[in-house]
Amino acid sequence: MNTVEDLQMEELRLRQALHKVNDELERLPADDKDGYDRLLGKACSIMAGLNETISRQIGIYGKRTAGAEKSYREEHAARLAAEAGTKASKAMTDGLHKTLENPDRH
User: What's the whole-model pTM score?
Assistant: First the structure.
């Protein structure tokens, strides 16, 4: 399970299992302590699995966001460098034209 979609399916499966345990708890006789302990343990195990599954999803989304942010910064830096290069090139060209127009002044 490495994709977000796989993790979402696992989360759905675990949520359904938790609802099933909850339904069993509601039908359990009030004096069935062993049954209550067993179902409570099952619910805790399911919730731990849910916690791990959701944490893994958050980790994947975090990596995607960080990657997008990095791409944006790299793209922005490249755009600024291109603009600076264009301005420098224009300044050099203008300077060359001025030198060619008035060679005595430079």
Answer: 0.57
